[in-house]
Amino acid sequence: MADPVTSPLTVIGTTALFFSGALIMRGAGCSINDLWDRNLDPQVARTRLRPIARGAITPFKALTFTGVQLLAGLGILLQFPWSCFFYATPSLLFVASYPLAKRVTYYPQFVLGLTFSWGAMMGFPALGVDLLANTAALTAAGFLYASNVAWTVLYDMIYAHMDIRDDAKAGIKSIALKHDAETKQVLSGLAVVQVGLLGAAGWAAGAGPAFFVGGCGGAALTLGYMIRKVNLKNVKDCWWWFVNGCWITGGAITVGLGADYLLQHSKESDDHEKIARV
């Protein structure tokens, strides 16, 4: 896209708000999930000691706390341009429906991906770019959103392997149960889709070589290494890769994005200096 590169201070400030909002809304999503699953969690070894499941917190208190989390998330949202409010509202439907998905489909991770990835649709409006009026931005946001959905399904499939035996007994559905025999093949396919769509998002946004080499290349290498090394029959190993794998891959993508941004910002600054001299 030919739009001017956003200033570093704006990028840092927007990133900080996004991080805070994501942290708060992820917590709210977990609270809603625990409320829905308060009768299922006691049947799963890993979740049976969660506060609601073990009776340490009543559903009413948990609901009240969830309301506080949602209000805090609204406070963060209102720091962005007003249009972001309308872009963000549909995500609440996904937040509320994810816990129900595991009861009716073997692919609740896909619904989780639709939920957790919604921030990809918020980045452009947060910087004042109207997606409905900018085809390139809408295309980039769409590819980025789809890429994040694939990534979420990938790492949550590893997560689901921790509870695979208890889930089968409790009647909880998951992609790990459905594809237990070919999990690594499914993970590999998801990784190809995620990196491919990430590259498509960079192409639509006019990203440079640093993004494709550092971000996309780094994502491909880290995901490939994780898929090869993770022991799906070992709960502790699945947990380690679930927690750390997303940071490792996310770090590679962030480095690629950051490097590309700095190079483009530097080039734009040099161009402005040349014009000023003329």
Automatic annotation (TrEMBL):
<keyword id="KW-0812">Transmembrane</keyword>
<feature type="transmembrane region" description="Helical">
    <location>
        <begin position="110"/>
        <end position="129"/>
    </location>
</feature>
<feature type="transmembrane region" description="Helical">
    <location>
        <begin position="210"/>
        <end position="227"/>
    </location>
</feature>
<feature type="transmembrane region" description="Helical">
    <location>
        <begin position="80"/>
        <end position="98"/>
    </location>
</feature>
<dbReference type="InterPro" id="IPR044878">
    <property type="entry name" value="UbiA_sf"/>
</dbReference>
<keyword id="KW-0325">Glycoprotein</keyword>
<dbReference type="GO" id="GO:0006744">
    <property type="term" value="P:ubiquinone biosynthetic process"/>
</dbReference>
<dbReference type="GO" id="GO:0005743">
    <property type="term" value="C:mitochondrial inner membrane"/>
</dbReference>
<protein>
    <recommendedName>
        <fullName>Diterpenoid pyrone biosynthesis cluster protein C</fullName>
    </recommendedName>
</protein>
<dbReference type="Pfam" id="PF01040">
    <property type="entry name" value="UbiA"/>
</dbReference>
<keyword id="KW-1133">Transmembrane helix</keyword>
<feature type="transmembrane region" description="Helical">
    <location>
        <begin position="186"/>
        <end position="204"/>
    </location>
</feature>
<comment type="similarity">
    <text>Belongs to the UbiA prenyltransferase family.</text>
</comment>
<keyword id="KW-0472">Membrane</keyword>
<dbReference type="InterPro" id="IPR000537">
    <property type="entry name" value="UbiA_prenyltransferase"/>
</dbReference>
<feature type="transmembrane region" description="Helical">
    <location>
        <begin position="239"/>
        <end position="259"/>
    </location>
</feature>
<feature type="transmembrane region" description="Helical">
    <location>
        <begin position="135"/>
        <end position="155"/>
    </location>
</feature>
<dbReference type="GO" id="GO:0008412">
    <property type="term" value="F:4-hydroxybenzoate polyprenyltransferase activity"/>
</dbReference>
<feature type="transmembrane region" description="Helical">
    <location>
        <begin position="6"/>
        <end position="25"/>
    </location>
</feature>
<dbReference type="InterPro" id="IPR039653">
    <property type="entry name" value="Prenyltransferase"/>
</dbReference>
<dbReference type="InterPro" id="IPR030470">
    <property type="entry name" value="UbiA_prenylTrfase_CS"/>
</dbReference>
<comment type="pathway">
    <text>Secondary metabolite biosynthesis; terpenoid biosynthesis.</text>
</comment>
<keyword id="KW-0808">Transferase</keyword>
